[in-house]
Amino acid sequence: MSRTDRAGRVIAAPPATVYAALLDRESVEAWLPPDGMRGRIERWDPRPGGGFRMVLTHLDPTGDPGKTSGATDVVEVGFAELVPPQRVVQRAVFEAEDPAYAGTMTLTWRLAAVTEGTEVTVTATDVPPGIDRADHEAGIASSLAHLAFHVETAG
């Protein structure tokens, strides 16, 4: 059975600014890793059919081991759909030997103009069963908080 996880927040910036941060390599490397992780992008191709490869390193892997190795999560992300400045659809596959992390998770980032800036909602579908729902939703919320900080303090 497929699972869907969600998170959202309002970011005090216009949709075009938020959208640009979703497709800029340095920006994604800065804001995407959730609390307790750092990220490094190894490949970047921001177009439909393109994508990126990111290595996420757990700063303290003792309580939260990685999916790929003891300290890392490696994820291949493809850009399935880019609709500026309203939506980015990604397909993410973790490199992991454990079948609980197998499969392709779809992440849909929706951006809607609101009085305060941009309402960003992230919907993750077909989440692998090995990913704890509460941890995943907290991780998405953490990434959204980093995205907000990144775009609200830029410039």
TrEMBL record:
<dbReference type="InterPro" id="IPR013538">
    <property type="entry name" value="ASHA1/2-like_C"/>
</dbReference>
<comment type="similarity">
    <text>Belongs to the AHA1 family.</text>
</comment>
<protein>
    <recommendedName>
        <fullName>Activator of Hsp90 ATPase homologue 1/2-like C-terminal domain-containing protein</fullName>
    </recommendedName>
</protein>
<dbReference type="InterPro" id="IPR023393">
    <property type="entry name" value="START-like_dom_sf"/>
</dbReference>
<dbReference type="Pfam" id="PF08327">
    <property type="entry name" value="AHSA1"/>
</dbReference>
<feature type="domain" description="Activator of Hsp90 ATPase homologue 1/2-like C-terminal">
    <location>
        <begin position="12"/>
        <end position="149"/>
    </location>
</feature>
